[in-house]
Amino acid sequence: MKIFHISAECYPIAKVGGLADVVGALPKYQNGLGHSSSVIMPFYDNKFTQSNSFTTVYKDQIDFNGSQISFKILKTTDDVLDFNTFFVDIPELLFKDYVYSTDDTDRFLAFQIATLNWILTLQALPEIIHCHDHHTGLIPFMLQESFRYKTLNTIPVVTTIHNAQYQGWFSYDKLHLIPEFDLNKTGLLDWDNSINPLATAIKCAWRVTTVSPSYMEELKLEANGLQDLLKHESNKCVGILNGIDTAVWNPETDHYIEENYSINTVEIGKLANKLALCKTFDLDATKPLIAFIGRLVYEKGADVFPSALEKALEDKNCSVLVLGSGNAEAEAALLQLKAKNKGYYNTFIGYDEKLSHNIYAGADFLLMPSRVEPCGLNQLYALRYGTIPVVRSIGGLKDTVVDISKKGGFGISHEQVTVEEIYQAIKRSVDLYHKTTIFKSLTKHIMTIDHSWHVSANAYINLYQSLKK
Question: Annotated binding site: which residue ranges?
């Protein structure tokens, strides 16, 4: 089966969040199942594009906002990835040193139009088009309604919602940018008196997926205004849990970490990584090391997170390391904790891929006090590295982490995002750490849990095949 994934992000080319990890892994695993899965994405001005060479496979122009804009479809000269990746190069719109900004409407609309114009010229058409998030949300509509693409409207289109909080809204003064269609169909674009690409995708895609079963059910109750639409379209909606790339996230072979280890050597291996991490950040390695990796935003609980950590650090019975960036107030509050908690707390504002791997390998616990977590990948990486997740029971966290109080439980969960509940979860983590036999047993057990993309990739293939019948 020939599959095209269309996305704004793809690891290791351009990453802002978990979308990149999914699009960077799912095609590889689908190819491993004997299919031909490729990615189409914008051509950005970043480290990947600067350090690789590209060949032009197609060039043309699009009519856009009263002008003729040239574009190219590029491909890497060398096979540097495990799947074919095609880049849409529109220099004046897409070739930027950022992925997202205030000009996203024009940029991603031009990206979608150029992508479909190129697909129109292919002799071997894709059998499935898989769109990811609102940046590609108008593709299902254009394939269905724009006169130019009518010859492609028998290709099944799947849309995956990675995060429904972001929908790509824009006003009707840009309606003319969409390739010509019957204006009587404008209602398919509308939600709450604006053009809403994510809502449009939900209406027009053949199937709508989310990145975990629980998140799909939660969206029918609260989806930043789209809950009623998702209820109405529920017959074509399904939640498929994300996987992780076990070749990239593997403590036995990970070149980023201080010392590699397996299930059999996890105790020695994690200790070596913990000692190195604590030395770098001046932390007490004799205490349980509790870490956070992620965006410092409201959805991740960043508004209450500093206060919860401050309360936990008063007990002086754990070490805490934070890696993240986002809300300026949250960043400032986390930085202020350093002065009062020297030897027990440190923070790195920003993102560092190498450091994130070292934290998964060296930490004893990983905190995820999220308000919204469609799937969550961090807890899956943590499990793979023998690091016990401490999570709010929501979305994909609810689907992947079972509290130790329950039969077969291996993690710690809490119900609400409050200072007290986060503090109590940390306190439970410290208590568990000192139950040495149980703690060591759980550390080994969680490394055996299979959250690879094998299962998820098969689920998507089965979904695609059901659309072709």
Answer: 15
